[in-house]
Amino acid sequence: MKTVAIILAVLIVLGLALGTIGMATIGFDFDRLKSPENFTLNEKEADAASKITVNAENNKLDIRKSGDDKFHISYYVSENYVGEYKEENGEISLRMYLKNKRKFLDYILGYDDREIEILVPDSFAGDILIKTANGEVGYGRAGEIGKLDLTTSNGEVSVTGAKAAEIKIMTSNGKIEVKDSESQTLVAETKNGAITLKNFKGNADLSTKNGSIDADGLTTDRIKAATSNGNINISLIGDASDYAAALQISAGKITYNGVQVAGGNINPGAEKNIDARTSSGNIVITFK
């Protein structure tokens, strides 16, 4: 027993030593543990714009309705984390990046709440293009716009009250939620996470590798839902006779309009379309 304890102690010491060497190799400043990096809040205001573009490396983003007729943009910067804000040719743009990527751990330990907040007035009807590498993205504005494009690598995306000609949502690791929204086309894709639609109006293309797909109160002419591992539940506003369905599973059950079916093509030639596919999971399609 004593020998095991000695071996464990040696392994812990070696692990700490290797971790310290590794952190030093990538340029981690250990003094930052005593004195975290100092972040400063920047706040910008704009009168007009036809396009909003944000490209960030490690930030949460929140887009909401402005309380007045102006645009309000707030973000945090530091000595190593830079924010480049521009107003040019009708476009508001913000680029956030690390000057020294070797000091990434300094940045992470220095500050935990680096949210970019964008407040948009009712009069705005242009495009909103958001991209961040690590962070959640939230959208909660009811005004009608052109294109809404929200992309993150690691984080969930939540959209409420959106009305846009086109909505595109992409994340690698995180769930996607769209509620009380409307668009001619919605594309939502995640590699690892569930996709949830509630009270959505428009055509939708939903895809995940690992996660369920749930669409409730959907008004659409075309819905495509695909997952490798997870259930698919779709509740449509309308009558089953209006839809042609292509349903496919490898392992699971299919229930269509209250009846268990084998899958394949149902009611081919109908004007509207349902395409649902899962490799491992059940498919349930209902109408109301």
Walkthrough of the structure:
- The protein is built from 2 helices and 23 strands.
- With 288 residues, it is mainly β.
- It has a 23-stranded mixed β-sheet that branches.
Topology, please?
Elements: H1 2-25, E1 40-46, E2 51-56, E3 60-65, E4 71-77, E5 81-88, E6 91-98, H2 104-110, E7 115-120, E8 127-134, E9 137-140, E10 144-154, E11 157-160, E12 163-173, E13 176-192, E14 195-210, E15 213-218, E16 222-229, E17 232-236, E18 243-251, E19 254-256, E20 259-261, E21 264-266, E22 272-280, E23 283-287
Parallel strand pairs: 2-6, 2-8, 3-7, 3-9, 8-10, 9-11, 10-12, 11-13, 12-13, 13-14, 14-15, 14-16, 15-17, 16-22, 17-23, 18-22, 19-23
Antiparallel strand pairs: 1-4, 4-7, 5-6, 18-21, 19-20
In short:
With 288 residues, the protein is mostly beta strands. It has helices spanning 2-25, 104-110, and strands at residues 40-46, 51-56, 60-65, 71-77, 81-88, 91-98, 115-120, 127-134, 137-140, 144-154, 157-160, 163-173, 176-192, 195-210, 213-218, 222-229, 232-236, 243-251, 254-256, 259-261, 264-266, 272-280, 283-287.
